[in-house]
Write a structure and sequence with these properties.
Elements (H helix, E strand, L loop, with lengths): L3 H14 L1 H10 L7 H13 L3 E4 L6 H11 L4 E5 L7 H4 E6 L4 E6 L6 E5 L6 H13 L1 E4 L2 E4 L5 E6 L12 H4 L4 E4 L5 H13 L12 H13 L4 H15 L13 E3 L3 H17 L7 H12 L4 E2 L1 H5 L4 H11 L4
Parallel strand pairs: 1-8, 1-9, 2-5, 5-8
Antiparallel strand pairs: 3-4, 6-7, 10-11
Helix pairs in contact: 3-4, 3-11, 10-11, 11-12, 12-14
Length: 332
């Protein structure tokens, strides 16, 4: 166990180093009205080196939020619109023949940026999805015989529409598992939507914001996030939550057994731990508390729990299962 003096020193360091979080929030609020949960989760993914899958209906500012965040961080931004006719080369790049020199040269694709917006990722075939997901996992791209490292920070932010599933290619479970977070975007509140209307009609909405943070600051913050203290009791709490999705009967949750076809993978445990530390950083704290776990749990687990036919017949969602687990697992 770390001495309390170390935690106090770390706490003070985190408080100072996390000042840019408020700057990003202030900058993004000039363009984005409401949607604080989405902005927080995008920043969480940025600090925890985790890719984010956003699911929501059209018109909920998913694309705008991602673009605005990239402007605030002074990073390169690429938007890839996924369509059925897209090819892997359209994402990673290809070899181009040069008649003048009689040889081939590499033409890099849009994946060579800091922020990648994969718009409607489920609109493209599996081969194209795999090309992007390989870049996410390996942090490098191979074109011809050459391999190229992707520059940090590298973050893939994908969107998908929960309706209009006709003609789409749903991401397989193994590929969805590579996203640290799956965030569901809700409609804005009535007051927020009133503000959106007024800004749009008056033309007050800014189209672009000035950068407030350099990419180097994000890379430095990521190293600091790893140092945030996590007690062994918190680690056990994470393990209890994840293991209860695999063997609910061992945790007195017999009613969940027939509802779950498969539980969360070890990636869930890893991502819960890393994301909890990033959540503590966002709250300017040098140590993880149980509320950090509870706060991010649904976004980490919802795409890692398989529902049985019985659950679908009874209209039980992943959120219902996660809520039951959180309410029943003993908090340290």
């Amino acid at each position: 166990m770390q001495p309390s003096v170390d935690i106090e020193a770390l706490n003070e360091q985190i408080r100072i180093e996390s000042a840019f979080v408020e700057q990003i929030s202030t900058a993004t609020s000039k363009i984005i009205v409401g949607q604080q949960h989405m902005i927080q989760r995008l920043m969480l993914g940025l600090l925890a080196k985790g890719h984010v899958l956003l699911e929501g209906l059209p018109g909920l500012a998913k694309t705008l939020s991602i673009k605005t965040l990239s402007q605030a961080v002074d990073a390169d931004f690429s938007r890839i619109q996924f369509t059925p006719d897209l090819l892997p080369a359209d994402i990673i790049g290809t070899m181009v023949y040069n008649p003048g020199t009689n040889d081939f040269s590499v033409r890099k694709g849009p994946v060579f940026a800091n922020f990648i917006l994969a718009d409607e990722i489920n609109r493209a075939p599996a081969k194209v999805q795999s090309a992007l997901l390989e870049s996410m996992q390996e942090k490098q791209v191979t074109i011809g015989k050459e391999s190229f490292k992707l520059e940090e920070p590298f973050l893939v932010l994908a969107t998908q529409n929960p309706i209009e599933q006709e003609g789409t290619y749903p991401l397989p479970e193994a590929q969805v598992d590579r996203f640290m977070l799956k965030v569901k975007i809700e409609y804005p509140a009535k007051e927020e939507e009133r503000d959106i209307i007024r800004r749009s009609i008056s033309g007050e909405t800014e189209q672009q914001i000035s950068p407030v943070v350099k990419p180097e600051t994000i890379i430095k913050a990521r190293k600091l996030v790893k140092k945030i203290y996590m007690d062994e009791k918190i680690e056990n709490y994470i393990l209890d939550i994840v293991f209860s999705t695999r063997n609910p009967e061992k945790y007195g949750l017999n009613e969940l057994k027939p509802l779950i076809s498969y539980g969360a993978s070890p990636r869930a445990s890893i991502n819960l731990a890393i994301a909890a530390k990033a959540q503590a950083f966002l709250n300017s704290r040098g140590f993880v508390i149980p509320d950090d776990i509870r706060n991010i749990c649904a976004d980490i687990l919802r795409h890692r729990i398989g529902l049985s036919y019985e659950a679908e017949a009874e209209n039980v969602s992943q959120e219902d299962i996660i809520k039951t687990i959180i309410n029943n697992i003993e908090v340290p």
